[in-house]
Amino acid sequence: MGAELRLLEQAPFEGPLTLLVDGSQQIVGHRVASAVEVTEKSMNNEQ
Asked: Which of 8, 17, 22, 46 could bond 42 through an S-S bridge, CB–CB 3.0 to 4.6 Å?
């Protein structure tokens, strides 16, 4: 719902993902991560 997300690290074999979510580092499992809907942010800040 408007959070900025960046993938920092992906473990092999469907292991956990390390994400930066609004400046806070979070580790989530592959199953949870696959349920997250992501849209790409425009580089020129258009919405």
From this structure: 46
- Which tens digit of pLDDT belongs to each residue from 5-47? 999 999 999 899 999 999 999 999 989 988 988 888 776 755 4
Which distant-in-sequence residues (6+ apart) come within 8 Å of 23 by Cβ?
4
Q: Assess contact for 17 and 9: CB atoms under 8 A.
A: yes
Cα 41 to chain centroid distance, Å, stands at 12
**Whole-number Cα distances in Å, 14 to 35, 36, 44, 47:** 14, 15, 33, 32
Return the structure tokens found at 38.
């992501």
